[in-house]
Automatic annotation (TrEMBL):
It comes from Oryza sativa subsp. indica. This is Reverse transcriptase zinc-binding domain-containing protein. Residues 99-182 form the Reverse transcriptase zinc-binding domain.
C-alpha cells in the first residue's frame, strides 16, 4: 500500500487508478483521497517517514477538504511503514483526455487551494470597484491610519472616533458606525467577536440558511458604505448618521440587484425591505 508513497512524485498532481489486485486498504485510499497533492516535485516518500513515523508535508495552503483527507490519511498511515517497492500505476489528475493543452495549462498554473474569502469577492452582482475594495479590506491593504503609519505616511495610527488602531477590520466590524449597523441587524455580538471581516462574513454565511447566496452581496454593500462614511468624515468633515448609511446601503443594493438574476434580485429586495 505504501509503495506509492515511496515513489518519487510526478511533477504535478497525480491520481491513482484502482486495480483489481489492490488491497482493501489501498482501495480505500484511492476512493477517499482525490485532492492531496505534493508540495514540491521533489517530494519523496522517504522524506515523509522519519524517526519511525509519518510526517506528511504537502501543499502549505490546504483546502478544508484536503485537511480532512490528510487527517484521515494520517490515521491510516499510523499503523504502517514503508515496504519494498513494486510498480504502481499513476496518471495525471486530468485523465480524460489524457493529455491536452488545457490540462497541461491547469497543471502548470495550479497553486493549491483557493483562498476561501475569494469566492465572496468575485461575484457578478458586486461591481468592480467594490470587489477591489473588498479584496483590499480582507487583506488589510486599505489606506487605513494603521497602514499609513506602517508606510511612514502618517504618525497617528488611531481611529478619529475611538481609542483603537484604525484597521480595515476595525472600520468594518468595531467602529462607531459599524457597531450601530450590526446592532440593527442583530449581528453586533458576532461582529465584535470575529477576528476579521472575512471570518465575520464566513460566520454569517454558515449560520444564515434562509437567504443563502446573497450574504456576500449585502455584506459588500455594508462594508463599502462604512468605508465611504469613514472617508467622508476624514476628507470632507462630513458625519454620516445611521439613517443615511442605511439608506445608502439600501439604494446601493437596489441598484446592484439589476445585475442579478430574478431569484437573487428578489432576495436582495426582500433583504432591503427588512432594513
Ligand atoms: Zn473607530
Amino acid at each position: 500500500m505504501t509503495n506509492w508513497f515511496r515513489r518519487r512524485y510526478l511533477k504535478h498532481t497525480v491520481q491513482l487508478l484502482p486495480r483489481s489486485s489492490d488491497t482493501p486498504t489501498w482501495k480505500l485510499i484511492i476512493s477517499q483521497f482525490n485532492t492531496l497533492s505534493a508540495a514540491t516535485q521533489d517530494c519523496t516518500v522517504d522524506s515523509q517517514f522519519t524517526q519511525n513515523s509519518w510526517h506528511v508535508k504537502l501543499h502549505p495552503n490546504l483546502s478544508y477538504q484536503a485537511e480532512l483527507e490528510l487527517h484521515s490519511l494520517m490515521q491510516i498511515l499510523h499503523r504502517l511503514s514503508p515496504i519494498p517497492e513494486i510498480p504502481d500505476t499513476r496518471v495525471l489528475l486530468h485523465s480524460v483526455p489524457k493529455f491536452s493543452t488545457s490540462n497541461a495549462y491547469q497543471l502548470l498554473t495550479y497553486h493549491g487551494a483557493l483562498w476561501k474569502p475569494a469566492e465572496y469577492v468575485w461575484i457578478h452582482t458586486i461591481p468592480q470597484n467594490c470587489k477591489i475594495f473588498l479584496w483590499l479590506a480582507f487583506k488589510d491593504r486599505l489606506n487605513t491610519k494603521a497602514n499609513m503609519v506602517s508606510k511612514c505616511w502618517s504618525e497617528d495610527p488611531h481611529c478619529p472616533l475611538c481609542p483603537a488602531l484604525e484597521s480595515a477590520d476595525h472600520i468594518i466590524l468595531r467602529c462607531k458606525n459599524a457597531n450601530s449597523l450590526w446592532e440593527k441587524m442583530n449581528l453586533l455580538h458576532l461582529a465584535n467577536h470575529s477576528e476579521s471581516s472575512s471570518a465575520f462574513l464566513q460566520a454569517v454565511v454558515d449560520r444564515n440558511h434562509s437567504n443563502r447566496g446573497i450574504e456576500p452581496i449585502w455584506f459588500a454593500a455594508c462594508a463599502y458604505t462604512l468605508w465611504k462614511a469613514r472617508n467622508n468624515m476624514i476628507f470632507e468633515r462630513q458625519i454620516d448618521n445611521m439613517q443615511f448609511i442605511i439608506q445608502q446601503i439600501s439604494d446601493t443594493l437596489k441598484l446592484r440587484s439589476m445585475r442579478a438574476n430574478e431569484a437573487t434580485k428578489e432576495r436582495i429586495l426582500s433583504w432591503c425591505a427588512g432594513l
